[in-house]
Amino acid sequence: MGPFAMRLQVERDGTRRNPVAAIRRLCEVEPLRSRGKGPALFLNPADDLAFVGEVERLVDGGATEASELERLLRKSYPDAVVRPRDLSNEPFVVWYVYRDGHWVASG
């Protein structure tokens, strides 16, 4: 098995542990909106309240496409990028919204 292969590991009590599932649990982040109308939004940085408020205002104001949100958001945040997540058979819409065009640490 190669160095990047994943496999189930058996605990002392006989239960199985999947390292991929553990990593996914550690990396889960609650989206800004996960229910209701509109896409689920993962914002970065999530602690920039002005940025979060602007994104909410634009989506609530009718931005229905990721490209439209990006265009509108760039009026205030010129480096902003909005990336729709495109997983086959996903039953909901998810957008990743980056204030600086890429992931940055919060705080």
Please give a quick description of this structure.
With 107 residues, the protein is an alpha+beta fold. Helices cover 27% and strands 17% of the residues.
Question: How would you describe what is shown here?
Answer:
- With 107 residues, the protein is an alpha+beta fold.
- It has a domain at 31-98.
- The chain contains three helices and five strands; from the N terminus they run ββαβααββ.
- The chain has helices at 19-27, 49-60, 66-73; strands spanning 9-10, 16-17, 40-44, 81-84, 94-98.
- The strands form two sheets. The chain has a three-stranded mixed beta sheet, covered by helices on one side.
- The longest helix is centred in the middle third of the chain and has 12 residues, at 49-60.
- Residues 1-11 and 22-29 have low confidence and may be disordered.
Please specify the SSE layout and strand pairing.
Layout: E1 9-10, E2 16-17, H1 19-27, E3 40-44, H2 49-60, H3 66-73, E4 81-84, E5 94-98
Parallel strand pairs: 3-5
Antiparallel strand pairs: 1-2, 4-5
Task: Please count the beta strands (DSSP E, at least 2 residues each).
Answer: 5
Q: Could you report the average pLDDT, rounded to the nearest whole number?
A: 77
Query: Ends: how far apart?
Result: 40 Å
Q: In angstroms, what is the radius of gyration?
A: 18 Å
Largest sheet: 3 strands, mixed
Inertia-based shape: globular
| SS summary, helix count | 3
Helix content: 25-40%
What portion of residues belong to β-strands?
A: 15-25%
Structural class: alpha+beta
As residue ranges, the low-confidence spans are: 1-11, 22-29
User: Helices and strands, in N-to-C order?
Assistant: EEHEHHEE
Strand order of the main beta sheet, please?
A: 3-5-4
